[in-house]
Amino acid sequence: QEKSCHLSAALLGEDSEISQEQLYELLKYAALGKCHNAAQPSWCCIYHQSHLAGVVVVVLHEMSQLHFYRFYLQFKHLRKVFRHRFTLAPSPNFPVSLYGEGANLTPQNTPQGLTSTSSECITKSSDLQCDPIIRRYGGKKQGLTSYTLTLKEQKENDYPIEGSPRCQGYISTECDQQRTDSSPLFGLDCEMCLTAKGNEVTRVSLVDAQGQCLLNELVKPESTVLNYRTRFSGITKKMLLPVKTRLSDIQTRLKKMLPHDAVLVGHSLNSDLQALEMIHPSVIDTSLLFARNEGRRFKLKFLAKAVLGKEIQCEQKLGHDPTEDARAALELAQFFIEQGPTKVAELNLEMLLTAEKLAEVSQNKAALQPQGCGFQEQLSEPPPLSKPCFLDCLQVTGQKPLLLGRQGSDSSGLCQSNLSTSNKQILQRALEVVPLSKFSIIQFSLGPEYLASQLHAGLYEKVRSKLTDMLTIYAGPFEENFCIKSVKKEFGRCGPIQSLIVVTETFQPYVCIQYEVLEAAQLAVESLNGTEVAGSCIKVQRPVTAAMLDCNVLIKELELDVENEGVIYVAGLKKSLTETDLQEEFSQLKDLETLFLPKDLQSGKHRNCCFLKFQKTQSAVDALKALNGWTMKGSELRSRKALAPGHLWRWIWQMHHSNGKQGKHIFYEKMEQLSDSEQDLRKKVKKLDHHIKKLYRSLQNNTLCVVLFPGVNSTHGSQSGLGLMGIKDDEGRSAC
User: Which helix (H) or strand (E) segment is 644 a member of?
Assistant: First the structure.
């Protein structure tokens, strides 16, 4: 049964701001996995990465967290599907920071003006027919027997052959040629030294199909050693002094270990069998398997890096490790058999080898550049070597990165198309080709008319104003000489207060209280409206403005937000309580997973409230019932469902403390001219949400989907981005 992938991310609280490097970590691991030396990201965990069906990144060009919350009701699909969200630090060059400095994909235009898969960027299908691998094996995937050397090929490549005059005295493994496509593979590699007799074995390694080492033995040569070839073999005179094992012992052991239908795999395996003085009928030679023109051969070190993403034969080590080399040759053969000739040809190994040699030349020139010479200034400096990009690594492993987007929307040149390309065309193309790609980046845009920095500034002020209104409550009327301290204490039990002002313009005094968190304001409206406070029966309400008419709808949708499932808000905590105290107090609550204690981002002091996240939604419901009226250290607690996840709490706090506050009346007068364009913008955002919904529904199960509002950097200021992510499950929503 296929394992389902799922995602775990502790993003409740201040740690919910993710850097571009951390996002890069996630995408690299999701795309490449452990087999290509990619590590689990430090801030989240992907379980069963090898079972991921693919990775899809949707980039909403020049949109920020601001857009998501300004048009929260319009982003109906996004907020209901993705369980994990994080604030994304804005970057001056978002594409480069996302794709890596080494990204060299420049997709070609198609008739529709859309980019194609990277296989078309690397090697056109018509060129594949000329590839030596396709010419030799054809394009179809075949079993391993199609890749074993024929008797003729063995003779041409100097393999030991039964009955050959040159092989007198050689020992046969006594394996027959009755091999099948299910015959077992074994990787073999030897290290040799130069003796009076010629090349003699000094070390032998054999690994099975799972890469397990079956044999790794030092061998004492029969003749006098003339050159230990320590630089390559790693063998020294001292190492061989205590060795008793002779070649005949190794021959006997190999005969016993190999089953009758064994297929030996090695790189230039003829040299190893010659040195072992053994004859074996079924062999796969990776130096011939990865065919080149004019009889040339790729080195094992290059193939391991280009195909498997592995570094072997490192210069830091003394000599080669035969077990490492045997395992690398085995994995190369397995890759070729599993992927087939076409996939291997698409890697375009010749191009990669040329690029590697050019890089070496650049490095050597830089190292040899004369210091302190009079003509030094006239020499042009070699271009700095860019960091490896995981998209390049995808190409190397045979996967096909896909980039779709608009021309002009990507300053790095990673996406090209004609100017008439619309989001609808991009979606149609994505629905066709995304299922064929393991890694896709789809870029949508609202269009140049909505990317003006002035519009961003206007949206920012509008969102900040609405949030301020949602955080604000008016309470009263009170008696003329009411106790402000009592009012502040009572309302403070609902959560941290940002400011409290007495309103005296009315016949009787009222108070205007602005909270730091949305839950506190909502709790005050729900629990204190119609109650007696400071000797007066009061009414508690939010400001009545045009922007606040849909406040109740917004509150309800925030409660139903998938990210707030199983999360509750608790207020009325004493500030003397530490996080450890709270963990102990709440330990009796069933299925409690995480406790987040908000802190003032300037002073570091925690507030008198916290958020509790439960593993199950029902456990959160039960906890709400239990906590109502709960007394902790003499203080009565108040609780409700959460409204604002951690990343939004941080953002609200930053908006509170940002400069450039303006009066509301001036602001609304200023924004009237944008009302028509904003109506149009709402429609476009709703349509964009629908496009993403359609794309998401077309994805296979176990596909990691990441939607990015990359943020904005401009002369008018920067806006943080927002990321939403999840792995699609059988029900069409993102799995935890």
Answer: none
Q: Which pLDDT tens digit goes with each residue over 236-250?
A: 989 999 999 999 999
pLDDT per position as a tens digit, 531-544: 999 999 999 999 98
Distance CA 46, CA 52 (A): 9
Q: How far apart are CA 220 and CA 505, in angstroms?
A: 103
Q: In this predicted structure, what is the pLDDT of residue 645?
A: 66
Residues 457, 461, 467, 471, CA torsion sign: positive
Q: Following CA atoms 649, 653, 656, 657 in sequence, which dihedral angle do they give, to the nearest 10 degrees?
A: -160
pLDDT at 646 over 80: no
Separation of alpha carbons 265 and 209, rounded Å: 10
Tell me the pLDDT tens digit for each residue of 570-590: 999 988 888 888 888 898 899
206 vs 80 pLDDT, higher one: 206
Which domains can be identified in the chain, with CATH numbers? Answer: 6-99+390-450+690-728 (no CATH), 142-339 (3.30.420.10), 567-641 (3.30.70.330)
CA-based nearest residue to 658, from 576, 718, 574: 718
Residue listed under structure tokens 């009545």: 544
Using the Cα atoms of residue 345, residue 346, residue 351 and residue 353 in order, give the sign of their dihedral.
negative
Q: Exposed (0-12), middle (13-18) or buried (19+): which is 75, by Cβ within 10 Å?
A: buried
What is the rounded CA–CA span in Å between residue 228 and residue 68? Answer: 68
Cα–Cα distance list, 362 to 381, 444, 588, 662 (Å): 10, 38, 64, 56
Distance (Å, rounded) from C-alpha 299 to C-alpha 486? 81
Q: Over the stretch 520-532, which tens digit does the pLDDT of each residue have?
A: 999 999 999 999 9
| 213-218/198-207 β-pairing | antiparallel
CA 596 to the chain's CA centroid = 25
Instruction: Please state, in angstroms and as integers, the Cα–Cα distance from residue 515 to each residue in 194, 637, 642, 647, following that order.
Output: 83, 17, 15, 17
Contact, 575 vs 605, CB < 8 A? yes
Which amino acid would we find at residue 483? C
The reported pLDDT for the residue numbered 381 is 40
Residue type at 467?
A: L
Cα distance between residue 161 and residue 197, in whole Å: 20
d(CA 383, CA 96): 17
